[in-house]
Amino acid sequence: MLTLLLALLLAAAAPVRAVETRAGTRAPDLVAAEFYGWYLETLSADQDPLSDRYDTFTRYVARELAARLVERLQGGRLPHSDYFTQSSSYRPAWRRSVRAATMRQRAGAADVVVTLGAAAGEGAGETRDEGGPRQVLALSMVLENGAWKIRQVVAVDASRSSAEQPGI
């Protein structure tokens, strides 16, 4: 009887431990928003997040993507636009408004939409975002070593229909 009771208690405790482990994992949209806040702040300080802050960079970016970006940098293949902003120019106004929302989450993968900058008429009494248009990005994220990390970034063109948008 004691053995059966002990087995039942252990079986009941197993899912609780799994829930506690999952509860300790921060949501993908929170990680994405934190990354873009840090990333844009690093760019505004005229630093390269990949080479100057690699340890912090790899806390947010999946191993495979980080390796591809380092390889591209070392090979001297400089992109025409920034991979994470999908833009050829940095807009300081983007730092004032970074929003993220998880659109879909399943075992070990998540799709997150990130918006940089406020749309016209949004913000603290502003009638227009003087930093230029906002940037909308679709992120594919992966759960890597217990933390959500960015696997892919694609720009979303708000003027096109969803059927015309690239898939993540």
Care to describe what's here?
By secondary structure, the protein is an alpha+beta fold. The protein has a 4-stranded antiparallel beta sheet. The longest helix has 22 residues. The N terminus and C terminus are likely disordered.
In one word, what is the shape?
globular
Helix count equals 5
Percentage of residues in helical conformation: 25-40%
- Class by SSE composition: alpha+beta
Query: What is the percentage of strand-forming residues?
Result: 15-25%
The termini sit apart by 54 Å
Q: Strand count, sense and closure of the main sheet?
A: 4 strands, antiparallel
Q: What Rg do the Cα atoms give?
A: 20 Å
Low-confidence stretches: 1-21, 124-131, 161-168
SSE layout and pairing:
Blueprint: H1 2-23, H2 28-44, H3 49-52, H4 54-60, H5 63-74, E1 98-106, E2 109-116, E3 135-144, E4 147-156
Antiparallel strand pairs: 1-2, 2-3, 3-4
Describe what is shown at a glance:
The protein is an alpha+beta fold and 168 residues long. Helix content is 37%, strand content 22%.
Using brief descriptors, characterize the structure shown.
single chain; 168 residues; alpha+beta; 4-stranded antiparallel sheet; 5 helices; 4 strands; 37% helix; globular
